[in-house]
Design goal:
Length: 129
C-alpha cells in the first residue's frame, strides 16, 4: 500500500485534500453497500469537506474488512502516522487500539496451536472416568 501522497497532501491546506482522498479510497474499497453509497455522495459534492466521523468509520471499515494481514495493517498504521492533523490522529488512535487487539489475538492463537501438541491436548474427558 502506498499512501505517501496522502501524507504529503495532509501537510497542505489543512489536510482537506488528504481527508477527502483518503475517505474516497476507504469508501470505494468497502464491501459495505452503505459505505459505497457514501462514496458516490462524496464524489458528487463539489467541495472537499468530509465529516471526520465518516473518515474514521470508513478507515475502521477498511482496516477490519479488507482481509489485511497483520503486516499490512502495520503498514497502514505507519503510513497514517506520517499524516498531519487532528482528524488523522483520531483515526490513528483507533487503528492502533485495534492493531493491539489483533496482535494479542494472533499471539493467543499461536499459543493455542502450540499448546495442542502439549499437555492440553493429552487431557481427554474419558481419562477422568
Amino acid at each position: 500500500m502506498c499512501l505517501t501522497s496522502f501524507a504529503q497532501l495532509s501537510a497542505t491546506k489543512g489536510g482537506e485534500h488528504a481527508s477527502w482522498a483518503l475517505t474516497a479510497l476507504f469508501l470505494a474499497a468497502s464491501t459495505n453497500p452503505l459505505q459505497r453509497i457514501l462514496f458516490f455522495d462524496l464524489i458528487a459534492e463539489p467541495d472537499l469537506y468530509v465529516d471526520e466521523k465518516i473518515l474514521q468509520l470508513a478507515g475502521v471499515d477498511f482496516y477490519c474488512n479488507q482481509q489485511l494481514d497483520l503486516a499490512s495493517k502495520r503498514d497502514l498504521i505507519a503510513a497514517l502516522s506520517d499524516m498531519k492533523g487532528d482528524t488523522f490522529s483520531k483515526l490513528l488512535r483507533v487503528l492502533r487500539h485495534l492493531y493491539a487487539s489483533d496482535e494479542a489475538r494472533e499471539a493467543m492463537e499461536r499459543e493455542l496451536r502450540t499448546g495442542e501438541n502439549g499437555d492440553v491436548a493429552s487431557e481427554s474427558p474419558q481419562a477422568s472416568t
